[in-house]
Amino acid sequence: MPRNSPTPTPEPAPSVEDLQEQERRLVFRRFTHDDAWALGSLLVELARERRAPVAVDIHRAGQQLFHAALPGSTPDNDAWIARKRRVVERYGASSYLVGARFRAKGTTFEDSSRLDPDTYAAHGGSFPVHVENVGVVGAVTVSGLPQIEDHRLVVEALERFLKG
User: Where are the domains of the chain?
Assistant: First the structure.
């Protein structure tokens, strides 16, 4: 970066309302095994372009339909995926939104949810697979980046996939 260039300011974290709007928008008409493969492959492609050291996981109805671990990811990422996915399954909302709702109340998920933090993590990166007229049937999850970046990567992939 040239010396006199301004330092880019980080994008602000989305509000609870912004996160809820993402979930209202990002709804599937259906979600098949082939959709999981295509969405997972898109996430891997986006992560590879950015050289992001992430693991990607897609579950539907308790079954893992897609998993990939990119260079630089570790077994810890798989543990984070499971913990974030359990939050989506329990609350029917993205792991980042669940954490944001607790923070908006002046507390944390860990302090106030009464759930085991070794089993549940309300950190960004897991997003519900919501099917029209059905509800939440699964989750798409990324782990390996700071939580807001995990969340944004999943949202970007969902936006692209659902436009297609």
Answer: 16-163
Query: Which residues neighbour 15 within 8 Å (Cβ) at sequence distance 6 or greater?
Result: 100
Pick from 94, 156, 84: nearest CA to 130: 94
Mean pLDDT of all residues in 27-39: 98
Cβ atoms within 10 Å, residue 25: 11
pLDDT (0 to 100) of residue 1? 45
Query: Which residue from 161, 131, 138 is spatially nearest to 45, judged by alpha carbons?
Result: 161
Please give the Cα distance from 4 to 11 (Å, whole number). Answer: 21
Q: What is the model's pTM? A: 0.92
Q: Span 16-163: which CATH code?
A: 3.30.450.150
Q: How many CA atoms lie within 13 A of 163 on its CB side?
A: 7
